[in-house]
Design goal:
With about 260 residues, the protein is of the alpha/beta class. About 55% of the residues lie in helices and about 15% in strands. The protein contains 11 helices and 9 strands. Strands 1-2-3-4-6-9 form a 6-stranded mixed beta sheet, sandwiched between helices. Helix 1 runs parallel beside helix 3, helix 5 crosses helix 6 and helix 9 runs antiparallel to helix 10. The longest helix is centred in the N-terminal third of the chain and has 20 residues.
């Protein structure tokens, strides 16, 4: 099951199947896809944190259930439900953070890579185990991994299925922060609070311009970035921030100014 907790403009999504190390059955995959679709239409949502229950992150698809579905059409369905949801997750205006609180395997790592940011507990590890099942990644993880760390390193991780600890994941650029053991969710919440301090339109624009680098030619991405800057320059939030800065610095320049 997927458990959703809402805290104002932040949502916490918890894959809660600890008996399967939070592997996703069909029902959980459908619930995840529905949650992404509904959240994409929610103008009040600003940050989503995705994690797993009881000391594990995600283990991809539940192979005990998937063993009953053996056709190519079943494989297409399996790839499509979560694969399409992860594309929508990437393109959503809000920020997604994976709190990797324990082992992540196979499709679970693919889900983490589709999030905007990743926080990993120091005692967690990742492994692309698809090759051990005579499979490739099916939810877009191969392409995201290649773009993130390059083709050679991506091949090495995909072809060996070896476990990657938190420090190596940070060094490779697979995660952005490492948290103490048991603190991945707390650190993800702290990161969310940092993001929530800032103007929502600016945050959305920053995510969009980073995404433009993946989907647009360089000169078009530069132009889109310039246009976003100009719109935000004229927006009220920018001028409120600038007036706050000017007022503070005028007081510093004139110590005798009364409050």
């Amino acid at each position: 099951m997927l458990r959703i907790e809402r805290q104002g403009d932040l949502a916490l999504w918890i894959v809660d199947r600890p008996q399967r190390r939070n592997a996703m059955d069909w029902a959980t995959m459908e619930a995840f896809a529905q949650a992404v679709e509904e959240a994409a239409r929610d103008p009040t949502l600003r940050v989503v944190i995705l994690t797993g229950a009881e000391g594990a992150f995600l283990s991809g698809a539940d192979l005990y259930e998937m063993a009953l579905y053996r056709t190519e059409a079943d494989g297409e369905r399996l790839g499509r439900i979560v694969g399409d949801a992860l594309r929508q997750l990437e393109e959503a205006p809000w920020i997604s953070i994976a709190a990797i609180n324990g082992p992540a395997r196979g499709g679970g790592v693919e889900v983490a890579l589709a999030c905007d940011l990743r926080v990993m507990a120091e005692d967690a590890d990742l492994a692309f185990v698809q090759v051990t099942w005579a499979l490739t990644p099916g939810w877009g993880g191969g392409q995201r991994l290649r773009r993130r760390i390059g083709p050679g390193r991506a091949l090495e991780l995909l072809l060996t299925a070896r476990r990657i600890g938190a420090e190596e994941a940070l060094r490779l650029g697979l995660v952005e922060r490492v948290a103490p053991a048991g603190q991945a969710l707390a650190e993800a919440l702290a990161l969310a609070r940092e993001i929530l301090r800032w103007d929502p339109e600016a945050v959305r624009a920053i995510k969009a311009l980073i995404r433009d680098g993946d989907r647009l030619p360089f000169h078009e991405a530069l132009q889109a970035e310039r246009e976003r800057f100009a719109r935000l320059w004229a927006a009220p939030a920018h001028w409120v921030a600038l007036e706050r800065f000017l007022h503070r610095n005028r007081r510093i320049a004139d110590p005798g100014q009364s409050i």
